[in-house]
Design a protein that fits this description.
single chain; about 475 residues; mainly beta; 3 domains; seven-stranded antiparallel β-sheet; 2 helices
């Protein structure tokens, strides 16, 4: 999702530090200069000169990039104290660029190199790539991507069916650690069948990105992956896999990772933090019992330091010479308006598999909200890789709340079979699957069932409220 923001300022919280020599700690916060956006997910580029960030509004999310410029005597803005401004702001969207899914006559085309920076997640270790949550490549599978600052070449870093989000690169640019739900089976009931094109995500992506949490509880654990990302049968390794799973152990499933892991400068340690599940995510009317904290003082937060025992200290790579103006981005001076974006027209389409088969697709729009409301797909021997073949149908209708744009209701009907290299099914119960979830609250409430079976392993949806 994308939404506008014209916020352009980073302000000192400690004005008296403005004349401190470089190297002293400077604490900054965002001064919102326009009501259309609320800056979040701010990340410094490794050059300490540029910054990326995202902004939320009721309409979605956009991401930006700019250069920090010290302003000793500002004459505008809410706080006229010595501060840093973000200048030369770039909206991280390609002018007149292709969309991930586009219509060409009666055919649908998917462009894996379409730049769709949703939520900014930071920069690579060298700073040559911007990291972000992007448009899905496979149905219901939310992943982290990287786009090169100069060339605009897009790389998919994660592809496991579970949900990936916070990410940090090592300073030698060879490894990254991401907080991911893999191992919890939290998302497998909806994303476990791979190689489904992301057609229904035109209406389900908000829900798919929301079910990975249970309110404040996340199901993240740190996953170490080499710089090339998930591929084939390689999905990295759980940093905290070793352990017996008992209460308070390093891999206790009731201790869940939070945002933003980090490497030590020499690459030999990874630090991350966790929280223990507490009410209302457990106990009371919730079907899950609450664990008892074994941490000192009954704490429900803990900081973890993982030592990579076979690693030798690394040397950082040279920092990429980041430009002020990104060639593929859109210049976004103060007061600028967002450029228009491509809107997939309603109608009947055919998506052809890269290897063979086809997917007959019907798209309907809500005439009042001017958004896609329903997607229906019929698969006939559809295959992109010549190894996995899809058969059957799936249809999802989205209803948004008139009073709360973050509240999604989905009426979902699915009966898909996959043959070939993997035998799998993705099926709803006789009455379908009906999910209501608020993207800002993440409380799972559903009637009916949606179940995925992959090579004999069955994945069920979470319990309501759990």
């Amino acid at each position: 999702m994308r939404a506008p923001s014209t916020t352009q300022e980073i302000i000192h919280t400690l004005p008296e530090m403005a004349n401190k020599p470089s190297g002293d700690t400077i604490y900054c916060f965002v001064a919102v200069s326009h009501s259309s956006g609320s800056p979040r997910e701010m990340r410094m580029h490794p050059d300490d000169k540029h910054m990326g960030w995202s902004a939320f509004t009721s309409g979605g999310e956009n991401s930006y990039y700019g250069r920090l410029q010290f302003n000793e005597s500002p004459t505008n803005g809410a706080l006229r104290v010595p501060r840093y401004d973000l200048v030369g702001v770039n909206l991280l969207a390609k002018p007149n660029g292709t969309a991930p899914i586009m219509a060409q006559g009666s055919e649908l085309k998917i462009d894996d190199q379409a730049i769709g920076v949703g939520e900014l997640r930071g920069f690579s270790g060298a700073g040559d790539e911007i990291l972000y949550i992007g448009p899905t490549r496979e149905a219901n599978n939310i992943d982290v991507f990287a786009v090169h600052i100069i060339t605009g070449i897009v790389r998919r870093l994660t592809s496991h069916p579970e949900y990936a989000d916070p990410i940090a690169f090592s300073r030698d640019n060879q490894w990254f650690v991401t907080m991911d739900t893999r191992g919890s089976n939290r998302q497998m009931w909806m994303a476990g069948m791979r190689h489904i094109p992301p057609l229904v995500d035109l209406v389900t992506v908000t829900a798919a990105s929301s079910t990975r949490n249970n309110g404040a509880r996340r199901f993240f654990q740190p996953i170490l992956i080499d710089r090339y990302g998930d591929r084939g049968d390689y999905f990295g390794q759980h940093v905290n896999y070793a352990g017996n799973g008992t209460n308070g152990s390093v891999n206790d499933p009731n201790w869940n990772g939070k945002a933003d892991p980090a490497f030590s400068p020499d690459g030999t340690h990874i630090v991350y933090w966790q929280s223990l599940v507490i009410p209302p995510a457990c106990g009371g009317s919730n079907p899950l019992p609450c664990p008892v904290s074994t941490a000192q003082g009954d704490r429900t937060y803990r900081v973890m330091l993982a030592r990579l025992v076979t690693r030798k200290p690394i040397s950082p790579v040279p920092i990429f010479d980041a430009p002020d103006t990104i060639p593929w981005a859109t210049q976004f001076p103060p007061g600028a308006s967002l450029p228009s974006t491509y809107s997939l027209p309603p109608g009947n389409y055919t998506l052809r598999g890269k290897h063979g088969g086809f997917a007959k697709t019907r798209i309907a729009k809500d005439p009042l909200l001017d958004i896609i409301k329903m997607v229906s797909v019929e698969y006939t021997n559809f295959s992109d890789d010549g190894e996995h073949y899809l058969h059957g149908h799936e249809a999802v209708t989205l209803t948004l709340s008139a009073s709360d744009p973050w509240l999604n209701h989905l009426d979902w009907y699915s009966d898909i079979l996959q043959t070939g290299a993997t035998n799998a099914s993705k099926k709803t119960g006789p009455g379908g699957f009906h999910l209501t979830i608020n993207a800002l609250e993440n409380i799972f409430e559903a009637n009916g069932t949606l179940t995925t079976i992959v090579n004999g392993v069955t994945y069920h949806q979470p319990l309501n409220g759990a």
